[in-house]
Amino acid sequence: MRARLTAAIALLALAVPAAERSVAPYTSVQAVLETFRDQLPAALQNPAKWTAWSRQQDRTIRARLEQGDLDSMVNLLLFGTSFTARPRIRIEDLAQASQSGLLRGRVDDLVQGLRAPGSNERLSFLRTLLVRKNVDPDKTGAFILQNLERVLKENVTFAQQVQSGNRAQVFHDRGVSLDTTILPNFGIEETLRDMKNHGNLRENTVRRIAVIGPGLDFTDWDSGYDYYPQQTIQPFALYDSLLRLALAKSGSLDITVFDISPRVIDHLQRAQDRARKGDAYVLQLPRGAGRRWTPGAVAYWSMFGDRAGGPVAPIPLPAVLTGTETRAVQIRPEVVLACHPADLNIVLQRLDLAPAERFDLVIATNMFVYYDALEQSLALENVRAMLKPNGFLLSNDKLASETAGSTMVWYTDQPKAGDSVNWYRKQ
To answer: Model's pTM, two decimal places?
Structure first.
């Protein structure tokens, strides 16, 4: 058994995409640029400047990652339990927390943690970030509160845009955050089931998949957990779902994970290094009592990982997380090695894939909202170039492209707490 596992791992380790990353050629995006002719920056009025503009725009997009890291710092301030024993603060209780001194106390605890982060990987990362931004150590608390105020103002603006029906690009001026949660993966599984039932996907036909921007769980954006090591969920969740729905065979899946964050790429590369030594990847799956999940979401959470791995004992919960349920699963090494990280900006770049190497499915959840209409259209062209004929892009964002269908999935009993996952087919 051990010999067969070692052989399988060796084969999967060789399955890294050999295609080169390149800027999309001007001819492939010319029609998109023509559509946006009246809105194009001056630099794009001349086709000869396309490549230079693309490279500059790539640097601009990647620079937004740092702003997203500061958003994560705010989530850590309000919800984190790894640096303080004080109660967490819900957004709706923020005014009361400020009056009672709870907010000030959490700020002081976070500042103290940043001064001496010890083995806390999140605090160590934030400390490095603040040094890079030249934040005066004596003014760290003020800097944290300034970012809290900024995020609160942004949230008001975002809510107004959503209410006006402008969800499609609601975050296009926001920092690109890596925070993630398990729930969008439930939405993807329900969508895959729906597509199978409608005959759009057949059993054992999905082999090559791409995941765009899977996220890294710095402070879980649904509930702000930080008591466990950072983790990524979506690549392993997708593998798990495809096997559960019999859309793919174990050992035949190849998943390319695209991201612009060096942290995500490095995290997956280190996970693969450990997997080559036979180590599993452990995922912690807490479920808070504050939000009532739908029966379907609870059932998904309960079975998550049973095809890609198996249950293990979870990390004990901090005392402040009273009422939280938790479980943990370990993902098999061969599953980890089937998920290959690749640095790629989908707005401007693509892999030059031979027809046989193109993707059956591309998954992008909570990703396109960070880009404006031009950037979304450019990204769609790059996705199409990497899809097989009749391949699908699945996204919970509404894009300027005809859909082949959509699946509505509810996560909790709260209003609008769900996703409409759209199916975009390459004709």
So the answer is: 0.90
Look at the block and give the residue holding tokens 């809105």: 39
> 183-425 has which CATH code?
3.40.50.150
Domain ranges (residues) in the chain: 63-169, 183-425
Helical (H) or strand (E) element with 194: helix 183-197
Q: 40-99: per-residue pLDDT in tens?
A: 888 787 888 999 999 999 999 999 999 889 999 999 999 999 999 999 998 889 999 999
For the record, the structure tokens of 271 come out as: 């996970």
Q: Is 339 exposed, middle or buried (0-12, 13-18, 19+ CB in 10 A)?
A: buried
Q: What is the pLDDT of residues 168-187, one digit of tens each?
A: 555 666 667 788 889 999 99
| Cα Rg, the chain, nearest whole Å | 22
Pairing of strands 325-331, 309-312: antiparallel
158 burial via Cβ count (<10 Å: 0-12, 13-18, 19+): middle
* Strand ranges of the sheet holding 309-312, from the earlier edge strand across to the other edge: 281-287, 325-331, 309-312
